[in-house]
Specification:
The complex is a heterodimer of chains A (about 400) and B (about 260). By secondary structure, chain A is of the alpha+beta class. Chain A has helices at about 20-45, 55-60, 75-90, 90-110, 115-125, 240-275, 290-315, 320-345, 360-370, 375-385; strands at about 70, 70-75, 130-135, 150-155, 160-170, 175-180, 190-195, 205, 220-230, 280, 280-285. In chain A, strand 1 and strand 2 (about 70-75) form a beta hairpin. Chain B has a single domain, classed as Rossmann fold (3-Layer(aba) Sandwich), CATH 3.40.50. Chain B has helices spanning about 35-55, 70-75, 90-105, 125-135, 150-155, 200-210, 250-255; strands at about 1-5, 10, 35, 55-65, 80-85, 110-115, 135-140, 160, 165-170, 175-180, 185-190, 210-215. In chain B, the strands form 2 sheets. In chain B, strands 1, 4, 5, 6, 7, 8, 9, 10, 11 and 12 form a 10-stranded mixed sheet that branches. Chain B is globular. The chains are: A alpha+beta (about 400), B alpha/beta (about 260). The interface between A and B is medium-sized, with 20 and 16 residues.
Chain lengths: ~400, ~260
């Protein structure tokens, strides 16, 4: 019998990483193992997120990781990706927290807000002392955000925001919300971004009840009932869909890496279980059908690793484009979901228990499959890219 | 206060070590390497002392070029600079004599080392170093589980420095003792002294720019011919399958007659 292969790096992708990139990955891995893994099961059961870890995530440099200045860590996209991979190996809800804070809340402030807003929010957000959320999706507008119906009407030196947002990660625990609303007309070009602080009269949040996925994460609805914000809180630097889509492009990049982490978690669980579980007098890992499932998993994980690493290198060189991000998000999340379902089947009845991480990852990935551009929308983005014909606009 | 702290590159204790068929060596190919966990505790203690008393933390490793990674890990935690003595693997006595040279050059107030490395478990280098230097030593430094909050535990060093002395709580057979040693001194760390911090991402980036001086061992002018040689490595015996007993009476009988523990 040959030596069994340990780990998930069958193609020695590690060799493509610099020393500091490996140190980032290993340090975040240790943090996840020591600080997150012991508590995730209870949080998932109870439907809670341990907000007290926000400042630890900040101290680790996991909030706004790639942003430069204003107390932000300023790391490369590859180092950031490796960190997101480790966070999502812990749970998609943990990675979502960091994604929303960094890519969806801090990023637009960093990119589009004026100096006063940057200085007011970014240093505290990088430390995890202030939590942000991102309000784009509405109850009636998901894949077609250009049709959003939240309005911001100018009144003197203020804007009056009215509307509703839904499926907002961190919504009810956030100190501030990035809200996208239409200012002048009804067109997508009228979309502008605003910072709305918690406690502003007319602004309230409620939690989505009955979630069967991303349970270790806060998912909320936001209600804006004639909420008055000063005009300074509007992003001067961007208008139209480009604003929110540029944020999503950052977040999707992190998701593509994170999904590999989920896949690794469910793959490891499947290998360990298959080797330890005897049936018909030998470990089920010795059966061809089980080996085929494990081989398919590691095969796809290796490809997914290479995909995001190349994407990260392109991003760090400043030459990546959103279509490549769609490709990576679409491929890796579907890959991870397939791995999770396959792993679940290897674990048999135990696969439905939260004693193992597999089912948790599997149902989490159903959300990841849908959020930040559904799998189908990314398919259409690729379709448009290869044909020049848009199937959805 | 200047603190010299050692970090050894060792095989990952979470991975199974493989041995060459002739039992002459450990197969390092494909092996993961980590900082000796006791040394990470030493680095953490040095950083806490530095925070309390100021000064500099210098990290030393002895080994091949690859050990730079373990020095960078300590620098990422917050240490100021590193020294890598480029060398083949040494025995504890040669390690101690290399450190004597570095101590003469750096003139630290304190040398903090892991009590032992998890690869060879020799537990000698710290004691030998203190002997060669003629310095007092406080081995197996520990800390009582007091009423500290988590935040306090993350701040306070276990080693108390006052009036030119280091007060060190030691784990000894049968309990704990506190000794005072005059500085300069050698302290070796036990498991319960502290919980090493996580290297932050910005810390890892800063560490890239910190100095790591490379010193070829030949330049130190010491004889490092090993006095201790590894003669043979062997796998631990494989565990035999257990037996099932029908009831408590049978279990007690077996414990009494076969295992002879009752």
């Amino acid at each position: 019998m040959s030596e069994p292969f340990h780990g998930t790096d069958l193609l020695d992708v590690d060799r493509l990483l610099a020393e500091d990139e490996r140190l980032v990955r290993d340090s975040v891995a240790r943090w996840v193992d020591e600080r997150w893994m012991p508590i995730v099961k209870d949080h998932f059961r109870n439907g809670t997120f341990p907000l007290e870890l926000a400042t630890e995530l900040g101290a680790m440099g996991l909030l706004g990781t790639t942003l430069v200045g204003y107390g932000c860590p300023g790391l490369s996209s590859v180092a950031y990706g490796l960190a997101m991979e480790e966070l999502e190996r812990g749970d998609s809800g943990l990675r979502s927290f960091a994604s929303v804070q960094g890519s969806l809340a801090m990023y637009p402030i960093h990119a589009y807000a004026d100096e006063a807003l940057k200085n007011r929010y970014l240093p505290k957000m990088a430390k995890g002392e202030l939590v942000g959320c991102f309000g784009l999706t509405e109850p009636d507008h998901g894949s077609d955000p250009g049709a959003l119906s939240t309005r911001a009407v100018r009144d003197g030196r203020e804007y009056v925001i009215s509307g509703e947002k839904l499926w907002i990660t961190n919504g009810s625990c956030a100190d501030l919300a990035i809200v996208w609303a239409k200012v002048d007309g009804q067109g997508a070009d009228d979309i502008r971004g605003f910072v709305v602080e918690k406690g502003t009269p007319g602004f309230s949040a409620y939690d989505v009840d009955g979630k069967l996925s991303l349970r270790a994460s806060v998912t909320s609805g936001l209600v804006f009932d004639e909420v008055r914000v000063p005009e300074e809180n509007m992003f001067k630097g961007v208008r139209g869909l480009r604003g929110p889509l540029s944020c999503l492009n950052q977040a999707r990049y992190g998701i593509a890496w994170g999904a590999v982490g989920s896949a690794i978690a469910v793959y490891r669980a499947a290998v360990d279980y298959a080797k330890a579980r005897p049936q018909f007098g030998r470990p089920i890992a010795g059966f061809q059908l089980v080996q085929a499932k494990l081989a398919d998993m590691i095969n796809e994980i290796v490809k997914g690793q290479l995909l995001v690493l190349q994407l990260g290198r392109l991003k760090d060189a400043g030459v990546s484009n959103p279509v490549q991000v769609s490709l990576a998000k679409r491929n890796n999340v579907k890959m991870a979901l397939d791995c999770a379902r396959s792993s679940r089947s290897i674990l048999g009845a135990n696969g439905i228990s939260d004693e193992y991480p597999v089912f948790r990852h599997m149902v989490n990935l159903e959300s990841v499959f849908t959020y930040e551009g559904t799998h189908d929308i990314h398919t259409l983005i690729l379709g448009r890219a290869v044909t020049g014909i848009s199937a959805f606009e | 206060m200047k603190i010299l702290v050692t970090v050894k590159r060792v095989t990952d204790y979470e991975r199974k070590v493989k041995i060459t068929p002739d039992g002459s060596a450990i197969i390092t190919e494909g092996m993961n390497f980590v900082p000796n966990p006791f040394d990470e505790i030493a680095v953490e203690e040095a950083l806490r002392l530095q925070k309390a008393h100021g000064g500099e933390v210098v990290v030393v490793s002895i080994g091949a070029k690859d050990a730079t990674t373990q020095i960078r890990q300590a620098l990422a935690m917050g240490a100021d600079r590193g020294i890598l003595v480029l060398s083949d693997e040494l025995d504890s006595d040669a390690v101690a004599r290399v450190l004597v040279k570095l101590v003469a050059e750096e003139k630290p107030d304190l040398v903090i080392m892991g009590k032992q490395a998890t690869d060879d478990d020799a537990n000698q280098a710290g004691q030998l170093l203190a002997g060669y230097l003629g310095w007092p030593q406080a081995t197996f430094a520990s800390k009582t589980e007091g009423l500290e909050s988590e935040a306090e535990k993350a701040q306070k060093p276990g080693v108390v420095i006052e009036n030119g002395e280091a007060l060190v709580l030691r784990e000894v057979d049968g309990g704990l003792e506190t000794i005072a040693v005059t500085l300069p001194a050698v302290v070796t760390t036990d498991l319960r002294l502290n919980h090493p911090r996580f290297a932050s991402l910005p810390g890892i980036m800063k560490a890239k720019k910190k100095e790591v001086k490379e010193v070829p061992i030949a330049s130190l002018g010491i004889d490092v011919t090993p006095k201790v040689k590894n003669v043979k490595f062997a796998e631990p015996p494989t565990r035999k399958a257990g037996v099932k007993v029908a009831d408590v009476a049978e279990l007690v009988a077996k414990l009494k007659n076969e295992a002879k523990v009752l």
